[in-house]
Structure formats: C-alpha cells, structure tokens
Amino acid sequence: MNSATLEDMRTSLRGPVIGPRDAEYDQARKIYNAMIDKRPAAIVRCADAADVMAAVAYVRDHGLELAVRGGGHSGPGLCLVDDGVTIDLSPMRGVRVDPSARTAQAGGGAQLGDLDHATHAFGLATPTGIISMTGVGGLTLGGGHGYLTRKYGLTADNLIAADVVLADGSYVTANADEHPDLFWALRGGGGNFGIATSLTYRLHPVDTVGVGVTVWPVDHIPEALAWYRAFLPQAPEDVYGFFNVFVVPPGPPFPEELHGRKVCGIVWCHTGDLDRLDETLSVVHEAGPPAFHFTTPMPYVALQSMFDELIPTGYQWYWRGDFFDHIPDAALDVHLKYGESNPTQLSLMHLYPVDGAAHRMGPDETAWSYRDAVWSGVFAGVDPDPVNADAIRQWCVDYQEELHPYSMGGSYVNFMGAGEGQERVRATYRDHYDRLARVKRTYDPDNLFHANQNIAPARA
C-alpha cells in the first residue's frame, strides 16, 4: 500500500490510519502475545461504526487482506495481517449500563475491565473471562467462559444483541428477532460473519464474591485432580473452581517458602452466602492437606483483574485447548508428567468448568457446540524471554497432544493455537459447522473475514 492509498483512506475516516512510516506504527501493531510479529500495511483505528463501515468498504473495493482487532488478545495473532489492513476497534471502548433493565452495551473495542468497571458500580455483572485485558468482542463471539459460567452461563448466552458491520459495508442489528440466523452464529462462531461494533449483554446481581486459592505440591496432582473431577460437577452452581498446574509466583498471597515451586491448585469463586465461604471450601482437605489454602471476600471486579500483573501484555505465548467431559485415571499421570516438566515460571494448564447453567442451553440454541463438555482446558507456554519461545511452544504442544485422546475432539475456538488446521476448526463446531457455513455464505459469501479460525462459505 503506497502513501497515496494511505492518504486516500485518511480522508474518509475520523480515526487515524497508521502506516509503516509513522512514528506510532510499531506500538500500534503490538498485541498481547509478543511471539506475534506481523506488519500490516495499515492499521485503521476506528472512531465509530461509520469508520468501520468505510474501512470495510475500502478494503473490499481494493482487494486488500483484512484482520480485525478488538482487545488484541488473540493467541495466534489473528488480529493482525501482514501487508493488509487491520481494522482496530480499540478506540471504541465505551460501556453504557441500564441498571433498571439490567443490561450493558459495550463498544467493540472494550476490554473486560471496561465492562466490569461499568457494571460493578451497579452491583451487576455478566459472565466473561478471567483476564481484564481480554477484548469483550472476541471473547463473546467465541463463546466466553469464566467465574460466573456455572451460575449464569457463557458470555454468549448472555448476549442479547449485537450491532454488526457486514462484508458489504452495511450495518445491521442482530438479535432474536432481527437477523436471527446471524445472531445464532455470532454466539460461538467467532469473527467469521462481520465486525461487532457494539454488544449488548444481560446482567446479573454480582457484587462481592468469596475467593479462594488452594495449592498442593506438584506430586499431588493425581490425588488432587481425582478429587476435583468428582467434587466440582456435583457442587452447587454458586461454587466455581478452575484446576491449574503452575509455578507459584513470588509475592502475596503465597508464603515465601512456596515461591518458585511447581504445584497444582484450584482458584475458587463463590457467589453464595459469604458467611459460609470457609465452610463451603473446607472440603478441599478431602484431597489431602494443602500446602496453602486462602479465602477472602473480594469485590468481583477485583477478582477479574487478579492475574493481570502476573501475565501482562508483551510476553511470549503459545496456547492450545481441548474440551473434556471426563478425566480418566490415565490422564492424571499425563498432568503429573507435564506439571513436573513445566519449563518456565509462567507456563500453565487450566481446566475451566463449563457445566451448570451452560448445560441448560439447548445444544442447537447457539453456535457453541459443546454443551455436553464439563471442562474447557487450555495449555499455555508463557515466558517474557524470546529465547524460551521454542521450549514453551513444545511443552504446550506435547502436553495437549498427549491428553488429546482423552478429550472430546474439539477445542474452545479462542484457545486454538496457530496452524492447527481446518480439521480442528471442524472438530470445534461439530455438527454446527455446515449450518455456520450456510450463514457465512449469506453474510460473507466471498470470505472477506478469513483472518480467523475460518469457516468457509458453503457452496451455493
């Protein structure tokens, strides 16, 4: 893209158009994962939906490659495209809460922290992820799960409307009554169908929650995970806990003697009676004496940002995922093997519960196709030093591949890594893939939006 083309784009947009020769270019192309080093020909920072419409039309009419950036949290870097145009929604971060209707409308560039901050002022929340820097758009379109999922469902289950710019540059609102086929696809089908410039959510009463952190030595993984797999699915939906394999970070709340040790543990969120928090979580001792157990009441908005400083923007990342409906005994030893061989301070494995309220949605009500999954697993190699990039990638790949035979076959689309292939995309959507391909044909027949875990348009 030459300078004349860049200037042409600048004249038609309110937001800045940043090219490779601009001083802010290198900063503008940085995303959460520093392992990604792509160089777009232009980064279009859209001020509003009109900018998005104009940018899409320009990209389409000039036959350019297109990527869409919301929060910039894409592990495989799908929010950037070499030599093409990244439509950057990050200026569009506003959130408007209607406390009477218990709804919130968030801009397409909003991050979870923006949404949580705005809703918490009214004692309300909607289920989202666990890192406040994550973009609400990408999280929602992929399905979205977190601390409130067992109680209130997926993020996508709580989406009640989305304003979307389509591949032809037009603007539509998708909800249960308008463009219902598109609305169905947006709730789990990823960024395949258009650019969501705003998203409206159903909110729930959530204010202060009970938080717990339980840790066992790494060699206790088989016993702790065997207890967890039996306890969590039958626990009340007010009780949420994700199982993790990690290295204890330096600093509170962990005692100094645990710093740097390889461990397993559970991070708890309890939305029930706070006076019963300690009693509710006392059951952790059934898995064996923990090396550390901590509970406290905490504002939900604080829990949502609890891990932000531990894994900030700019580290090396490689991740993969899988869905699981059970954890067989053979898998326990695999978790132990990779827990003991964890290559860096920040590399991890998490098993997030996706049962409870998420199971009460019908299997065909949204594009999310794993309503029978109990856990959404993620394997992530993480380190600040590029020297360790190969080591963390290999640990992640080996861990996921060795556990994959015990999985359900597909992955949460937002946990798919780079280069996993089209069969993995199909496995992620199962029987919904063909229906999604037909929706794709309706709204994006030329596959303009293909910088994603792509669903190709169905043939006419």
From TrEMBL:
Signal peptide: none
Assigned keywords, A-Z: FAD, Flavoprotein, Oxidoreductase
PROSITE patterns: FAD_PCMH (PS51387), OX2_COVAL_FAD (PS00862)
Top-rank lineage group of the source organism: Bacteria
Gene3D superfamilies, sorted: 3.30.465.10, 3.40.462.20, Uridine Diphospho-n-acetylenolpyruvylglucosamine Reductase, domain 2
Cofactor(s) the protein needs: FAD
UniProt xrefs under Pfam families: BBE (PF08031), FAD_binding_4 (PF01565)
All copies of domain FAD-binding PCMH-type, residue ranges: 36-206
UniProt-recorded name of the protein: FAD-binding oxidoreductase
Originating species: Streptomyces koelreuteriae
